[in-house]
Amino acid sequence: xxxxxxxxxxxxxxxxxxxxxxxxxxxxxxxxxxxxxxxxxxxxxxxxxxxxxxxxxxxxxxxxxxxxxxxxxxxxxxxxxxxxxxxxxxxxxxxxxxxxxxxxxxxxxxxxxxxxxxxxxxxxx
Length: 125
What we know:
alpha+beta
């Protein structure tokens, strides 16, 4: 099963527009991943699935990204496996369209351009 990389969590977009995040007891409970799951469901109206992701599924996703604090989302254009290379055309040069919407919405919340969910932003000065 696919879990995470050394410095980021995976997110996957299915061909029918669902956000899938790998589920495992060993995955770091990333705030960025959880925030993207919330944004996908509550801001973009997407179906969100948190479930085990088998490596054989990788070739079937429309978009793949790595998420974390520093990059928010970095697109994935290629995955090399012992069985061969998986190309993800949506991530080769830029983010795919759904990943870009997730990125822009989360950044908009962080920059106070989009209203944040209650409790997400605390004014300190």
